[in-house]
Specification:
By secondary structure, the chain is of the alpha+beta class. It contains eight helices and 14 strands. The structure holds D-MYO-inositol-1-phosphate and calcium ion (CA) (2 copies).
């Protein structure tokens, strides 16, 4: 396993180099579901690169990438899920606060999660039953936060469209939002925030986070409080258990009021 992990880290480093080199070129920017949902030639090239590398290494594995997603993920067998650039809007507008998300599942059970931080090049790895490592150093989280002492990331849709903002900011210590599942997730993993709540997400936005959650004693939950699965879409709260539970109570209360 270790040999493969090192190989995959090399693939991610090379993919990051492709992204950094692309900043010297002009971007071809297209929109997908709406004017804020962007894709560039860099997303497509990086996905192609990672997919080709994984398919060469593991001939009988499936690789599912955001930019070639066809509407569902069959988790039977060996499945890799890749988001070649998470935070494309940040990449286009700010040239920072993006990253790469990659995970490996076997029959629906998360085996490996990788998060490459585009700002630093650091690679975080979650290994089933072994823990989480950043640049080979083990990390742990102090599991003692409650909502009133926590900074919380909430997506813009959560803050304004569902109107969770006022209630959450009155109960939490404060709100911080980076605008990419990779960066908002890393704030949780690094113990800087208590949780990250997102409304609109694809499987690739949280498939790696699920593996990290398991290894760090965190939660990755759906609106009904059940565990998110790798092929789920939509609402997700990722973070410390107590904080996630308190947030779920708040959002369910608001959703019920609005019914
Ligand atoms: C997006 C980011 C963003 C979230 C969107 C995602 P993308 O990913 O993670 O935080 O609000 O739902 O789609 O499109 O940049 O890979
Ligand atoms: Ca994404
Ligand atoms: Ca993406």
């Amino acid at each position: 396993m270790e040999k493969w992990i090192e190989k995959i880290k090399d693939i991610l480093k090379e993919a990051h180099r492709l992204i950094l080199d692309s900043m010297k070129e002009s971007l071809t920017i297209e929109t997908k579901s709406n004017r804020r949902d962007l894709v560039t030639q860099v997303d497509k090239n990086v996905q192609k690169f990672i997919t080709n590398q994984l398919e060469t290494l593991f001939v009988n594995h499936k690789v599912v990438g955001e930019e070639s997603y066809t509407g569902s993920i069959d988790l039977n067998g060996h499945v890799w899920i890749v988001d070649p650039i998470d935070g494309t809007a940040n990449f286009v507008k700010q040239q920072k606060d993006y990253g790469i998300l990659l995970s490996y599942y076997n029959d629906g059970i998360g085996q490996l999660g990788f998060i490459l931080d585009g700002n630093t090049g650091d690679i975080y790895v979650a290994i089933k039953d072994q823990g989480v490592f950043v640049n080979d150093k083990r990390i742990d989280i102090k599991q003692n936060l409650s909502l009133k002492d926590s900074l919380i990331s909430v997506s813009v849709e959560g803050l304004f469209i569902r109107n969770y903002g006022q209630k959450i900011s009155s109960k939490a210590f404060g709100i911080r939002y980076k605008g990419a599942a990779v960066q908002d997730g890393l704030m949780v993993i690094n113990g800087q925030t208590g949780a990250f709540l997102a409304l609109q997400s694809g499987p690739w936005d949280f498939a790696a986070h699920i593996v990290f959650a398991k290894e760090l004693g965190l939660k990755c939950l759906k609106l009904d409080g059940s565990n998110r699965q790798a092929n789920d879409h939509g609402f997700c709260v990722f973070g410390q258990e107590e904080v996630c539970r308190e947030l779920l109570e708040i959002v369910k209360g608001i959703d019920n009021e609005n019914c």
